[in-house]
Amino acid sequence: QVCAQLCRRPCYCPWVPPRCPRGSPLVLDGCGCCKICARRLGEPCDFLHVCDQSQGLVCDYSTAPAGTGGTCNFEDDEEGCEVNGRVYRDGEVFQPSCKLQCHCLDGGFTCIPLCQENVRLPTPDCPHPRRVEIPGKCCPEWICEAQDQHLLRDARAVSPVLPYPCQEWGTEWSACSATCGVGFATRVSNQNRYCRLETQRRLCMVRPCPGLPAAFPA
Question: Where does the record place the IGFBP N-terminal domain (predicted)?
Fold first, then answer.
């Protein structure tokens, strides 16, 4: 049994072409009549609704029941990945933003940051470091802000008003320094009343230490 999908002539197309999602270009349908949105990787397709050939996609009928549509896939079963509506080939290295570099591999992708996530602690020449976005630059940078207000030494003094809103930031707590008994964990954070980066410590205990045998009293 042979089935065919006939094309109607003349073409009857809408006056306004459809608005396609990001990454899906306008192409002619399978009859070469009307402009439609090209189907992307993994989307259903058929004779009329064609796949995006600019991305190397074809309508794959291998897994579809007879007489039904197929699924857009890479030609020759080539693996790929889709990020933000764009399809990348297997092995391709790409940058979805200036802060990330990604690698498409085996249908998935891994990314590494291009901006250094270093921590700057207060120093005598830079007592109040702060990381800010610089216009025209992708990665944020550390700047040193002079603080005109004098910090009162009295522990009961009220915290001064900072010249800028404090954006809380901190690293994760480190692993406990002791495998048993009481130890301490550290982190770098600005969550204090002066919004100043400092190394903080807290007590921790993973588990109690096992007791000594009775033959060996402490």
Answer: 1-75
